[in-house]
Amino acid sequence: MTKRIFVTATNTDIGKTYTTKLLLKQFASLGYRVGVIKPIETGVVDGVCPDGDALLALVQELNPAFKEMTIEDIVPITYELPAAPYVASNAAKLDVKKITNAVKKIENICDILIIEGAGGLYVPIDDRYMMIDLIGYLNAVALLVTHCSLGCINDTLLSQKALNDTGISYITAFNCKESDRSFASVSEPYLLKQQKNVLKVESDIDTISQLLYNL
User: What residues contact residue 37 under an 8 Å CB cut-off, 6+ apart?
Assistant: First the structure.
């Protein structure tokens, strides 16, 4: 059975695509046939999917079976407006069958499927679904990507509580940028008090991938 890993985040522009690409490379280096899908992408103009195009190009390098796949396979639902899917779609009902069919097609050619979400956990998709609901619907484990700037404690704990309340298995990883040099002194001491370790996306991707696979 294909392992499904859903990459989510505390907000938009936190580093989901960057993290997804690192996971694809890491799992491929271990000999797994990797696959990727971004079920919904907004901000798509003239058929250009900024995230989806980058993911497709990489997965085609890592898994030759994806050579025949198109961007429509990797990103089955797109909207032009760069907003929450609920708004971008004018409150249209989510076509969950379109997503599940795309997932099944991709799973035929991979051992591990990385699913990249849109925005954070409580981004509304339609009247019924939030992004967090899609994780459960797809029976995936989650990687919560969070930031390292001031405010990360609040953002991280709120998202962790949402995942805990929903019963989704997950791990958390911090995507620290060059400008986040104060993280070690400002936020990390409290986070270390609350959890055994603080995983960093770039430096700990091998540990992150192992933990996700074992969830």
Answer: 73, 74, 75, 76, 102, 103, 106, 113, 114, 115, 116
Q: Write down all domains in the chain, each with its CATH number in brackets.
A: 3-214 (3.40.50.300)
The span from the CA of 80 to the CA of 207, in Å, is: 37
Q: Residue 10, CB half-sphere, CA atoms under 13 Å: how many?
A: 22
Return the active site residues.
38
Residue 94: exposure state from Cβ atoms within 10 A (0-12, 13-18, ≥19): buried
Alpha helices in the chain (DSSP H): 16-29, 50-62, 71-74, 85-88, 96-107, 131-137, 152-166, 183-186, 188-194, 205-214
Q: Which pTM does this prediction carry?
A: 0.97
Model confidence pLDDT, tens digit, residues 119-158? 999 999 999 999 999 999 999 999 999 999 999 999 999 9
State the residue for tokens 């390292």. Answer: 148
The Cα 54–Cα 23 span in angstroms is 14
Strand, helix or coil for residue 48: strand
